[in-house]
Amino acid sequence: MIETSPVTLGEASCKQWYGSTEESGKGLLLEIPVLDEVSDIDVKQAFFRGMVTDIRWEKRKEGQILVADFKIEERTKPDIIMDADPKEEVGNQPPSLHKQEEFPFELESSEAIISYNDKGKMRYFKVIGIKDGKPLFYQPMPKN
User: Fold this and answer.
1) For residue 27, what are the β-bridge partners?
2) Residues 6+ apart with CB under 8 A from 2
3) Among 34, 36, 74, which Cα is nearest to 55's?
4) What are the Cα distances from residue 99, in Å, to 14, 42, 95, 96, 139?
5) Domains (ranges, CATH) in the chain?
6) In which element (H, E) is residue 55 found?
7) Contacting residues for 45 by C-beta, under 8 A, at least 6 apart
8) How many CA atoms are closer than 13 Å to the CA of 30, on its beta-carbon side?
């Protein structure tokens, strides 16, 4: 059951980020400013654009903020070894048989759900009006 937020929220934003190398990947950074002076709410997860990740509190000079960093997994098919000799195909991985869990909420692209623990009971509140910000491009670390 979706409830009202236990804190006063500022204007939430989402930025796509890109790592400096292909291995570092890409993702979405969801930031939700909190206008109240509380940070004792035990936040757990953020549900946003079909993805789920942990959410955390951060203190910044402009105040407290909820931050969720969604890593976007690239869905590439692994290389498959085909050979007349079946022994050469030993390294091939069998297809995954587990079913991907269904996303539990129906949300617009500008909405997110935040879960939090309230006296042992899991509760949820909706964040609306999330604005897309400028993408973040991380620079490679300098080599020594």
Assistant:
1) 17, 71
2) 113, 124, 125, 126
3) 34
4) 29, 30, 11, 8, 37
5) 2-74+103-137 (2.60.40)
6) strand 51-60
7) 52, 53, 54, 55, 68, 114, 115
8) 26
List all residues 6 or more positions away from 51 whose beta carbon is below 8 Å from its beta carbon.
28, 70, 72
Question: What is the 8-class DSSP label of residue 9?
Answer: B
pLDDT digits (tens, 9 = 90+) for 107-132: 999 999 999 999 899 999 999 999 99
Q: Extract the tokens encoding 54.
A: 């942990």
Structural contact between residues 6 and 125, judged by C-beta atoms closer than 8 angstroms:
yes
> What does the DSSP 8-state code read for residue 79?
P
The overall average pLDDT reported for the chain is 85
- Residue 83 CA: distances (Å) to CA of 86, 87, 89, 100, 119: 6, 8, 7, 31, 59
- Alpha-carbon Rg for the chain in angstroms: 20
Task: Convert the pLDDT of each residue in 46-98 to its tens digit.
Answer: 999 999 999 999 999 988 999 999 998 665 556 677 778 877 777 777 665 54
- pTM equals 0.76
